[in-house]
Write a structure and sequence with these properties.
The protein has about 350 residues and is mainly α. It is built from 12 helices and 2 strands.
Length: about 350
């Protein structure tokens, strides 16, 4: 009875985790959450130790493979425990001898894979039913693993596309601010913002449904969505609050996008690094803008105004660091766009 109860508990746990992770839009099951968090912490730890991002790049593929392997292993263990509750329920097809422990492990393995070798066979009604259910269970798990991996790859491609679209607005927040202040191309700028808004809503929902997407790291800045979102949000904050009162730009496209970015930041809490009290510096200063003749507040006024954005910018900094970058990459002060 103990074998059967243990097997049922293992199978129930793994199936709940698989169904929760693959067929719902409410994040991951308990096992998947633990594996995802462990992968994130490991990749960030290696990044801190090595000082480069090379170790972060294969994190998502390795996590997906690990999840699939653990699901199959847990399934294998669960069905082995159930078959072990009936020691005489499996026999050799040639000698009629009851299967031992290793042979039961072997039988469960080829049953889950639906190979049906036939050198061992069930002798009781319950083990025959177990064999049928195990075959379907193995087929279902493999199917769900494949159907789970495909939207992850599609989501990663969508994130890269969106990040690249944002990068076209400018290499730095200053470039985006200058483009926003260009009164001759206001309509074109707002059209791009509307496109980004729609795509970012989709990415926000995907981030909620598939937390593993946060483990897809990119080699270059322009394809890293967290970095590009932080750059865009800094620019929009300057546009909304950094200009002198009479020169501030107000539009539905800007306010809607800032609200969507807020949703993206808070919808799923990133656990890549702990959120602390550190806030990125308010950059660039008015002197940095002198050559562009933008009607910005003074340095002191700008810093005072941005205090209301403290919590938002803390989350932006966390998001940037979770992808292996730093705030210099947001402000465009890094040396190059290559993997570090």
């Amino acid at each position: 009875m103990g074998w059967m109860l243990s097997g049922a508990l293992v199978l129930s746990f793994v199936m709940v985790d698989v169904v929760w992770t693959t067929l719902t839009t409410q994040g991951s099951g308990p096992l998947t959450t633990c594996i995802t968090d462990a992968s994130r912490r490991l990749s960030n730890g290696l990044h801190r130790l090595s000082g480069g991002r090379a170790f972060m790049l294969p994190t998502a593929p390795l996590t997906i493979v690990t999840l699939g392997a653990l699901w199959l292993a847990a399934l294998w263990i669960g069905w082995f425990l159930l078959f072990s509750a009936f020691p005489s329920g499996l026999v050799s097809g040639q000698t009629g001898r009851a299967a031992d422990t290793v042979e039961r492990i072997y039988y469960v393995g080829f049953t889950l894979s639906t190979l049906g070798v036939g050198d061992y066979k069930p002798t009781s009604d319950i083990t025959r039913l177990f064999t049928v259910f195990a075959s379907f269970n193995g087929l279902v798990i493999v199917t769900l693993v494949i159907t789970y991996a495909l939207p992850l790859v599609q989501g990663a491609v969508h994130r890269r596309k969106l990040a690249f679209t944002i990068s076209l607005l400018g290499k730095t927040p200053l470039d985006i601010v200058r483009r926003a202040a260009d009164t001759e191309n206001t309509q074109g700028f707002e059209s791009i913002l509307q496109t980004v808004t729609n795509d970012l809503i989709q990415s926000s929902e995907q981030r909620l449904a598939y937390p593993v997407l946060n483990l897809f790291y990119c080699r270059h800045r322009r394809y890293s969505l967290g970095l590009q979102v932080a750059k865009l949000d800094e620019a929009l904050s300057l546009v909304a609050f950094g200009f002198k009162p009479g020169a501030r730009l107000h539009s539905n496209a800007i306010s809607d996008l800032r609200e969507v970015i807020k949703q993206y930041l808070y919808r799923v809490e990133s656990r890549a690094c702990e959120l602390d009290s550190e806030v990125p510096p308010v950059e660039p200063s008015p002197k940095y803008f002198d050559g562009y003749q933008l009607p910005l507040l003074s340095a002191k006024e700008l810093e005072e105004t941005f205090k209301c954005l403290r919590n938002r910018r803390m989350h932006l900094l966390q998001l940037v660091r979770s992808e292996g970058w730093n705030w210099n990459d947001v402000e465009g002060r890094a040396l190059d766009d290559k993997m570090r």
